[in-house]
Design a protein that fits this description.
This protein is of the alpha/beta class. The chain is globular.
């Protein structure tokens, strides 16, 4: 297992150099090309920046540490495609704020990772460039939409990778591949320079092998950005704190018989580990979580419909060569540029926002969202954190759910409640099933309790070689 600390220690001691670390990461990426986790490498720019680190011209907390960016983050060195035909040849004119922050601390981006096109999906099978394979079992999905970033971390190509999480797109693939994945409090890290999916729940997070590495990266990424008015003043100090005994609730609605037996067993074992560490763990009830998925797939497609309206073949992005009229420019460019899942979400969103259906669907979903938020707030009056499985089952087979969108949407059932409420949530690797497939558990906390959640995870973290 490669951690940020290992790399920084090797560079500082002279055992290695930034150039050598980047070259090694690039070689690992090429050796694992069959997983299709990376869409493109950026060796020239990466090695140029590594030389600056070795010369002392580039310093910082992450100087010389290679990382990977999900390909919906604007970053230099390769096109930002969002894994779509619509943006297949789009070169970013500027970088995402969080990428800039990491580079200012000396981190070195070596490539762009695969995802479901426009981050619409839960398996990274909805990429215009083909699916990514699971890091543990190549016959299974990587999860999504940030599957590529989860896999490059799990394969030790890089010690951390960036992802975006709208309804579970970091946490679910983190669980499927056995790594940490954090969805911070909404607004912790700037959304500026990231291709928008749903503006009210999009959050920027990362994958790593340890709670300490996760905290370090998020500490760099966090903070107010004048270019994103939803960003919060910096509350994330990027450190792990000693833990006092906490009161933790297991949401019983997430532990019923619809959840795979091995997932329930691993979650209960993790709860016992927390108890052994001195924490109180009790069963709690939050019935409205059973309706969170229905809320999500009304509210989020509505925002998707609005955010994707800009891709019309006129301003930027793909433009159909077959179009002969303005109407054809719109229709053909979108038909060729969007994947089927993109079109499905646009149509659902347009429907729920249309006259006569806005009140019946969208407005009711937003009211239910408020009740969900209030339900969480009530629990946090008594409990410091909540525990659930990250996903109802381990990674499923490639192609298993592609013909059944509803079955695919159900893979988000554990993760969407925290997203709708804007709460911090972390997927922690907690065990495996009999087949050796990773299983993650999810820690959810009150707003801006991100450091506390990571410290809690670190306090019971098993040493990993």
């Amino acid at each position: 297992m490669i951690t940020i600390g290992h790399i920084l220690s090797r560079i500082k001691s002279g055992e290695s150099s930034a150039v050598q670390e980047v070259e090694a990461a690039l070689e690992r990426a090429k050796a694992h090309a069959s997983y299709h986790a990376l869409l493109e490498l950026t060796p020239e720019r990466a090695l140029e920046r590594a030389k600056l680190v070795d010369e002392g011209a580039l310093t910082g907390k992450l100087a010389g540490v290679p990382f990977v960016v999900k390909d919906n983050f604007l970053a230099f060195g390769a096109p930002t495609t969002a894994a779509s035909n619509m943006l297949r040849n789009f070169d970013a004119p500027y970088q995402a704020t969080v990428v800039e922050k990491l580079e200012q601390e000396g981190a070195i981006c070596i490539g762009k990772s695969n995802l479901d096109a426009f981050a619409h999906g839960g398996s990274t099978e909805n990429s215009a460039f083909g699916p990514t394979n699971n890091a543990i079992d190549t016959t299974r999905v990587a999860g999504g939409s940030s599957g590529g970033s989860a896999v490059v971390t799990a394969l030790d190509i890089v010690p951390f990778a960036l992802g975006s999480d709208t309804g579970g797109s970091i946490r679910q693939p983190a669980s499927f591949n056995g790594v940490y994945g954090i969805k911070p409090t909404y607004g912790t890290a700037s959304r500026y320079g990231v291709v928008a999916m749903a503006s009210s729940t999009d959050t920027m997070g990362c994958f790593a092998h340890t709670a300490e590495d996760t905290a370090l990266v998020m500490g760099v990424m966090a903070g107010r950005d004048s270019k994103d008015m939803t960003s919060l003043p910096d509350f994330f100090d990027g450190s792990i704190h000693p833990m006092n005994p906490m009161k933790i609730g297991i949401i019983k609605e997430t532990m019923d018989n619809s959840v795979d037996e091995s997932v329930r067993a691993v979650t209960n074992t993790y709860a016992d580990t927390l108890r052994a560490a001195g924490h109180t763990v009790e069963e709690v009830s939050l019935p409205i979580v059973n309706h969170a998925l229905a809320m999500y797939y009304i509210i989020i497609p509505a925002e998707v419909s609005s955010n994707l309206a800009r891709y019309d073949g006129v301003r930027y992005g793909h433009r159909s060569e077959a179009a002969k009229t303005l109407a054809e420019v719109y229709s053909l460019s979108r038909a060729e540029g969007f994947m089927s899942e993109n079109k499905r979400r646009i149509l659902i969103g347009s429907f729920v926002l249309s006259q006569g259906f806005f009140d019946a669907y969208y407005l009711q979903a937003q009211k239910a969202r408020t009740l969900l938020i209030q339900g969480f707030e009530k629990l946090f009056e008594t409990y410091d954190a909540l525990l659930t499985p990250t996903a109802a089952a381990p990674a499923f087979k490639l192609g298993e759910n592609t013909e059944d969108p509803l079955k695919m949407y159900m893979t988000d059932v554990m993760t969407v409640p925290a997203s709708l409420a804007g709460l911090p949530a972390i997927s922690v690797p907690a065990g495996t099933n009999e087949q050796g497939l990773p299983i993650g558990v999810q820690l959810v906390g009150p707003l801006q309790s991100d450091n506390t959640l990571l410290s809690l995870a670190a306090s019971v973290e098993e040493p990993r070689s």
